[in-house]
Amino acid sequence: MRLIGMLDSPFVRRVAVCLDHLQVEFTHESVSVFSDFEQFRAINPLVKAPTLVCDDGTVLMDSTLILQYAEAGPARGRSLWNPDRALLAHEFRAVGLAMIACEKSAQLIYERNLRPPEAQYAPWAGRVTGQLLAAYAALEAELHAHARVFASDNNHGPIAAAIAWQFSHSMLSTELPSTSYPALVKLSARLERTPQFAGRPPAGPGVPGL
């Protein structure tokens, strides 16, 4: 299998880290949706990161669906979902919040750095910022209220939350000061020290213009 996309994308990094945890063999190709647009389009005309090219040539997209596919087959019965069914709904919630936080971060970054200043729309940026802050406030609350969900280093909830926080805070530290999210800061620091995170650092050019 081939994973296409840059690791500075939290969605691509999430897939890479989780596939490593699942012990699924794959090759990673650092192709940018920006600077390598035509190369990416030759692999996937939608130019969507992450893209997974399966061994039979099938092209998959969306980090959650890619990981669902991996756990359904190539992972050979291994799963990163919490085995405690009483905690599973909260883990689903944590992953959902983390992915929304990534989406809103990307929207805000693109608005500020890809759109010309004269075309930027302040009400839209304000709305997205509000959604971003709400996502991280809810995620921080989940870490405090349901610490057991985040106790492991190899479950989807903590992995998604840690990857989301690293991405958002590195790009939007003014909106997301560390002092306001101590549980997320602690979780991120812990997981970044694991072999799976350290082996897939968030390397890449980021958004042009930053």
Q: Which labels suit this protein?
A:
210 residues, mainly alpha, Glutaredoxin, Glutathione S-transferase Yfyf (Class Pi), Chain A, domain 2, 2 domains, 4-stranded mixed β-sheet, 4 strands, 6% strand
Report on this model:
The structure is a single chain. The protein has 210 residues and is mostly helical. The protein folds into two domains: 2-79, Glutaredoxin (3-Layer(aba) Sandwich); 85-194, Up-down Bundle (Glutathione S-transferase Yfyf (Class Pi), Chain A, domain 2). It contains eight helices and four strands. Helix 4 packs antiparallel against helix 5 and helix 4 (85-113) runs parallel beside helix 6 (156-171).
Low-confidence stretches: none
Number of continuous helical runs: 8
- How many strand segments? 4
Strand content: 5-15%
Instruction: Work out the count of structural domains.
Output: 2
Helix and strand sequence: EHEHEEHHHHHH
CATH class of the largest domain, named Mainly Alpha
The CATH architecture of the largest domain: Up-down Bundle
Mean pLDDT, all residues: 96
Structural class: mainly alpha
Helix % is: 40-55%
Summarize this structure briefly.
It is built from eight helices and four strands. By secondary structure, the protein is mainly α.
Write the layout of secondary structure elements.
Elements: E1 2-4, H1 10-21, E2 27-29, H2 37-43, E3 51-53, E4 59-61, H3 63-72, H4 85-113, H5 122-145, H6 156-171, H7 182-192, H8 195-198
Parallel strand pairs: 1-2
Antiparallel strand pairs: 1-3, 3-4
Helix pairs in contact: 1-3, 1-6, 4-5, 4-6, 6-7
